[in-house]
Write a structure and sequence with these properties.
6-stranded antiparallel β-sheet; FAD/NAD(P)-binding domain; about 30% helix
């Protein structure tokens, strides 16, 4: 067989592409994977992993402040960004090596270079021509750099995670996951941070009660919020940046983080040669079986711009490989997927918002707990915890769980199992609490705060 002929060729060696390639190879397919950059993708190299490592670093600011209330004397802690940056670089290099080993161990051929599709079933990588019976596009997404005139020169999360020196102050433009996460981290690392966004509240698409409390938590951390004030332009002013607001005010910052969104990586792939037309956002449309408009061409993950979460891309990639090369075709159910915002304190959620369920006509019982956790109460701290369950009044099924507070992602991940299994509120009520924990509040909510619908 020609070494450049493959049963399955994957473009993009991120988490989803690697997972799909390895699963297909495990089924006996001859698999190749093409990558133009580092192996591992956004999540491992410049997203989820290094971001959370920075979150861990930022958390120590709160821990040092709280330690005195528990009898500790910790002196005057000082964060050194170069030390963190060196450790982060070493860790991402280690993880990239692990990914390369996983591909080699699975007998997946790694082809390094930029892939361009130039005919059905044919991909060029430099002077090399690859032929594929089945082609998977798993090229992910990248930061949007042209959302506001002049913002293209500003740093995105990619560049921020490579900084070796932090600025004294910063403006963060945006109000989604990335904006809130980095704003809360920068503030705790000693950067006076301001957040600019168009809406009344941050985190569009999340439950209103979480959005309100997320804004309050950011303010409590010392971040200056500018709701309804997305800049209309950004200008360079010597060594600084000017944010030009709609009311013609100009605010100067030494550093601006562009966190205005991400865009699917489809430019220059040659999709037009096989009849695939990306949508207005640049995403590749797919059906429930991840098929594109071109025969035997599939797409997964952020490049489809459906539910941009790494575990979703991995699940889609494995399901596709099982369907193409395994004994039983299967699809991924995206109707109930948990997610987290790793701001401080973190937000976690699974299921629809209260507003979405109310609009659907579902009669809801809304259960809430809003309290100061024991760790905070002991030192007269200000950080609070908020939990919410949305229950179908007719069936008693728990439809959604929302939380902001310490350990929210860990707690909601566990609850996701119960909600996926169709747990009812009565089953939550019969569960004996683990005391003293914050998570026990999810099984101690006895009376609804309100009934909607």
């Amino acid at each position: 067989m020609n070494p450049d002929d493959f049963d399955y060729l994957v473009i993009g060696a991120g988490s989803g592409g690697v997972a799909s390639a390895r699963r297909a190879a495990a089924h006996g397919a001859k698999v190749g994977i093409v990558e133009a950059g580092r192996v591992g993708g956004t999540c491992v190299l410049r997203g989820c992993v290094p971001k959370k490592l920075l979150m861990y670093a930022a958390q120590f600011r709160d821990a040092f402040a709280e330690a005195a209330g528990y009898g500790w004397s910790v002196g005057h802690p000082h964060f050194e960004m170069p030390r963190w940056a060196a450790a982060k670089a070493a860790e991402t290099q280690r993880l990239e090596h692990v990914y390369r080993q996983l591909l080699a161990g699975s007998k997946v051929a790694l082809i390094e270079g930029r892939a361009v599709i130039d005919a059905p079933g044919r991909v060029r990588v430099g002077d090399r021509v690859l032929n594929a019976k089945h082609l998977l596009i798993a090229t992910g997404a990248q930061p949007v750099r042209d959302s506001i005139p002049g913002i293209e020169g500003c740093a995105t999360s990619d560049e921020l995670l490579d900084l070796h020196r932090l600025p004294p102050s910063a403006a963060v433009v945006g109000s989604g996951y990335i904006a809130l996460e980095f704003a809360s981290m920068l503030q705790r690392l000693g950067v006076a941070t301001s957040l600019f966004y168009r809406a009344r509240l941050p985190l569009r698409g999340f439950d209103e009660d979480l959005r309100t409390r997320a804004a309050a938590a950011l303010q409590a951390a010392g971040i200056t919020l500018h709701p309804g004030a997305a800049p209309r332009a950004v200008q360079r002013a010597g060594d600084a940046w000017l944010l030009i607001l709609d009311d013609e005010r100009s605010l100067e910052f030494p550093f601006v983080l562009n966190a205005t969104g991400r865009r699917p990586n489809t430019a220059g792939l040659g999709l037009e040669t096989i009849g695939i037309t990306p949508d207005a956002d640049g995403a590749i449309p797919v059906d429930a079986r991840l098929r594109t408009a071109a025969e035997n061409v599939y797409a997964i993950g952020d490049v489809t711009h459906r539910l941009n979460l790494t575990p979703v891309a991995i699940a889609e990639g494995r399901a596709l490989a099982d369907s193409l090369f395994g004994p039983t075709p299967r699809a991924v159910d995206l109707s109930l997927v948990s997610s987290a915002v790793f701001m401080l304190p973190p937000v976690a959620t699974i299921g629809p918002t209260e507003a979405e369920l109310a609009a659907s006509g579902t009669k809801l019982e809304v259960f809430e707990a809003d309290f100061r956790p024991m760790k905070q109460a002991f030192i007269d701290g200000h950080e609070r915890c908020y939990m919410k369950l949305l229950v179908d009044a007719a069936s008693d099924r728990v439809l959604a769980a929302h939380m902001i507070g310490a350990d929210a992602p860990e707690i909601v991940q566990s609850l996701a199992v119960a909600l996926t299994a169709g747990a009812t509120k009565a089953q939550f009520d019969r569960t004996i609490a683990m005391h003293p924990t914050a998570a026990e509040e999810f099984v101690l909510m006895r009376e609804p705060a309100r009934v909607v619908g």
